[in-house]
Structures are given as structure tokens and as C-alpha cells.
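Protein 1 of 2
SEQ + STRUCT:
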Amino acid sequence: MEDEHRDLPAVPGERRVAVQVGDLFGLDVRPSRTFVWLGRRVEGEEAVLSLGKPPKVLPETTPLRSKRVAGADITYLGSPAYTLPLSVAATAKHLWRRHKAKRLDAGREE
């Protein structure tokens, strides 16, 4: 199994974990939104699930890191151990609010 780690220049930005699986597809998970694409990523052509809150920008001193593991390129800003649970919780909260709103709308129609 290939496991290569490299630091990229520090950039200001929202914490994120992005995975590109060969030329098949990719996923960029952030606390405020998630991007999904087929093939290689082309900026602006991703499907986006907005979670309805503004992004929080990390300081410029936070390094952007990249790993290659078993054919997948993983890039992250901030700790993935913090980013992924935060993003999952924000997504679950967003989906729950949408579900409740649909139930209320359905109840009003009856």
C-alpha cells in the first residue's frame, strides 16, 4: 500500500477533507457544504450540497496537507479527525431540518 505525505503551502480557507479516487470521482467535505464530482475535479462543475451556514476561515498559518493512499489523493486543511465529525453533524442537522419542514408542509395540505 502506497502512503505518501506532503505539506503544501499554507493557505487561508475553510477546514476540509477532499478525496479524489483516481479518475473516477471525488468528494470535498466541509462543515458548511459538500462538493461531489465525477472524473477529475473541474472548478464550478461540482454538485454542491449547501448546509446553510457561512464558512469559517482558518488562519493562514494552517498548512494544507496531502496524502496518497491506495490510489486516492487526500487533501485536507485542519484536522480530519475534527472536520469529518463536524461535517457529518452539520449535514445530519441540515437534513433533519429539511425533513421536519416537509412534514409540516404535508400536514398543512391535509
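Protein 2 of 2
SEQ + STRUCT:
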Amino acid sequence: MLNLKRSLAVCLFTFICVSTVVAQGYSDSQPTPADVIKNAKVIYIRSDSRYVKSEELESEILKQPLARDWGLIITRDEFKAEMIVEVKRKRWSRKYILSVLDPRTNTVLFAGKVHNVMFSNLNRKLAEKFVERMREAGR
């Protein structure tokens, strides 16, 4: 009798867990990072550095020939983005970290570093690094 109750409890627990996972939309068929990179068109740019303004980086990305060929669209609405480009500056240095995220899963798709020297165009370097990494990822 005790084993029957324990078995029923385990079955009920398993059913609740599976139902929750299905209801939240998780599945084995989630897109891979390469799929997200290849199919994403709408990007959002986020910068936590006062030296990199989102608007200036947007302009530089749109100037890149490959970005135009891919038909990338930049949005200012983070919730409409299919990819998020994030720029952070390492404290007390001239190194910047460029990360690209999948906003649905908050997964890092790729990342890269850019070292800025005095009087160089940092936004252009970041845009070039973004396009280079997108191409390496199979875009």
C-alpha cells in the first residue's frame, strides 16, 4: 500500500513537472546560436559606457556593407529585437567587450574584445568586430 502511494506521488510530480515545462514553451527543438545568428534581422544596441553611444554605434553598423547586404534592422525597442548587441568597457582600461545575446534565452551567441587607442574611431572598430564575428558565425 505504501509503495502504491509513493508511486502515485512520483507519477503526479512527474506529470506536474512535464506540464510546467510544456506550458513554458521549452522543447528540444530550441534554435541553436548559429540559427539565431543566421536568421536574426532586428537588433538592439545596449551600451554601458559613456564613450560608446548607442546611436553612434547604430550608424557605424549600418555603414558596414555586409550589414546592409544582410538586411539588418536596428530597433530602439529592446522587446522587438531578435539579437542584442551589448558593449561594456573594462574598468580602468581601453578594452571594450562586445557581446551578442539572444533575448529569448539570454544566451551569449558570441563575444569579442576591442582595444581602443587614442584618437581612433571606437564605434567603427566595434561595428567591424560585430560584422567580422557575424561572418565567422556563418552569416
